[in-house]
Each structure stands twice: as structure tokens, then as C-alpha cells.
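With this grant's support, we have paired protein sequences with C-alpha cells. One protein thus recorded is set out beneath this paragraph:

_____
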Amino acid sequence: MTAVSQQARTSYLIRRAQLFVYAALSERLREHKLTPMQYMLLSLSRRGEMSSADLARRFAVTPQSMNETIVTLQRKRLISRTVSSEHRRVLRISLSPEGARLLRACDRTVDAMEKSLFGCLDPQALKALRDGLMTLIDLESASIQKRQPHSRTVLAGRHRPPRSVARENARWISLQTSATRRPTRSSS
């Protein structure tokens, strides 16, 4: 352990790790012409149809930001939108065959990235990290459901994220897509 990590707050360490994981993800997905947000949206789409409002809440972005991402993926013919049978104003998102093919290729790329990034952790340490993160996510989800039982929000801290969160996400995506290539860590 370094002197910095012994003194740093857990929240700071999580944020630092999130930044380098996001940077690596951005770099690797660039070869597929996708942003991390687009990749994650495609990944969620394989689980079944979701509305753009559900996705916006899940990613803690405004419905307008999510709609822009959806339109981009729709233009690339990676997803399709259909009118919901339950509510005519709701459009459901689903993967197209081309989107499913691209997602499989991206999954292989992300698997290799994760092996490289997390290869320094033994299987027990990686399992402990994953378990700890899932516990935090589950606790936050339960807390949100108590505060907003009518909402299907999963990861966002509010029904509609503050503009600052959406701005930060947009800024980060913009920086990552224009960033220069960074060397990756090897797992030796």
C-alpha cells in the first residue's frame, strides 16, 4: 500500500478507480465507435425492452441526454424503438441484430480490458471487491426505493438527477472521447 492510499478516504479511492476504469473503457470502445454510455445502454438492452425514462433514471442523466444517446444508437441501427403496448407515449428500446453483433464484439474487448486492469487482484480479492460494490449498490437502491417507492430508479440518487450530474457526465464523456491514448497496465 502506498502512503497516499493509507491516508485517502474510501470515497476518494473509489472515484479514482472509477476514473481510470472509465478511461480504459473509453479507449477500448473507441475501436468500436462507441462511448461507455452507449455500450452500457446496449448491454442493458439485451435484458429486454426498456423505456428511455427507465434508462435515464438508471444512468442518472436527464431524459433529454438519454434521448440523444438513444437517437445516436438508433441512427447506427444498433437499437430499435417501438411503442409500448401499455402506454402509447412510451417508446421501448430493444437491440437490433446489428446491435447484438456489435455488443458481442464489445463484450470480448471489455473482458480483455477487465482482465488487464484487474489481473493484479487474486480471485478472492476480485470477488471481495465485486461483493463490496454490489452491497453498496444494493443498499443505495433499497434506500432510494424507501424514499421513492413509486420510482423504479436503480442507481440514481434522485428521481431526476440534478443538472450538475448530467453536465458532469456529458463533460466526462466528451473529455474521454477526445483524450489521447494512454498506456495500459500489464498484469505481470
